[in-house]
Amino acid sequence: MNEEALSLMQDYFQEQHYIEHALAVANFAAKIIAGDGLDIAIVRADEMVIKDGQSALDLVATVAFGDGCDRIVLPKAVLSEEFFDLRTRLAGEMLQKFTNFG
């Protein structure tokens, strides 16, 4: 999803109700969209939420098990810069957590 599409989606749901969550690493809110058998969580945060594999697992557990969502939309701002440096292996570790537990 490109930045423009994500921005439009976030603007659309900005006025909607968000479920507030507090994780060990950060606070975030998730807007749950339900329809056609899919529950999608759109994550919104003022700070970086995913900094390592454990914070990715915390996010997945909170959204998947706590909110019952099977899809997650993450804006770039919630991911650490290490996510985009493939040598750190954070992207692979995070996606593995999403696959195993999401």
Q: Short description, anyone?
A:
The chain has one domain (3-101).
Describe this structure in words.
It is a single chain. The chain has 102 residues and is α+β, with helices and mostly antiparallel strands. It has one domain. Helix content is 36%, strand content 23%. It is built from 3 helices and 4 strands; from the N terminus they run H-E-E-E-H-E-H. Strands 1-2-3-4 form a 4-stranded mixed β-sheet, with helices on one face. A hairpin with a 4-residue loop joins strand 1 and strand 2. Helix 2 runs parallel beside helix 3. The protein is globular and about 40 Å long. The two termini are 19 Å apart. The model has no long low-confidence stretch (mean pLDDT 75).
